[in-house]
Amino acid sequence: MFKKDITPGAKSKVKSSVQRTIRSKVLEQYPLLEPYIEDILPKKEQLDLVKLPDRIALYALGTTPLFFQHMDDPLLPHLTLIHRYPRCFPTLRIDRGAIRFVLSGATLMTPGLTSPGGRLPNDPNDAEGRYGKKELEAGEVVVIEAEGKEHACMVGVLKVGTEEMKRVKKGQACEAGHYLGDGLWSLSLG
Hints:
- Belongs to the TMA20 family.
- The chain contains six helices and ten strands; from the N terminus they run βααββββαβαβαββαβ.
- It is of the alpha+beta class and 190 residues long.
- It has two domains: 11-84, Roll (Sulfate adenylyltransferase), CATH 3.10.400.20; 90-179, Sulfate adenylyltransferase.
- A hairpin with a 2-residue loop joins strand 3 and strand 4.
């Protein structure tokens, strides 16, 4: 989605009523963020809307990008927010071999998640329960971590559910919304 460098368009202040709506959408979509919502979207702070190419809206607090949205699609968290609150989003893990493809903006393929280095929900190798017990459905927003790395490398939308991935073990798994090093990552709001 953001393969090339992007230049921000018009920046406008979000009305307080719209800000409340965004806040409730965020809590509905990501319920684990509730304890941190006052830090992320404080009621007294001014939220900004930055228009980006291809009808994408970026919501930012000062120079900190928080969420972005393509038209009426779900709100996707920016990687800086994910790095601050890593345990608040549904997460999957790719194996080492898939890292270079993800960081070049390719669509994530199922073998990167179903191989020995990958992790899906209910994985027997996931002793600490990091990747959850609940199977994820197609269309859900998911954070992608990389095997052997500390921080998430991508956030995107699942094309197929995790149960189907385990069963079929091939095909497209997740559409890249935003990844480390893309145009959105290097965008300066200062």
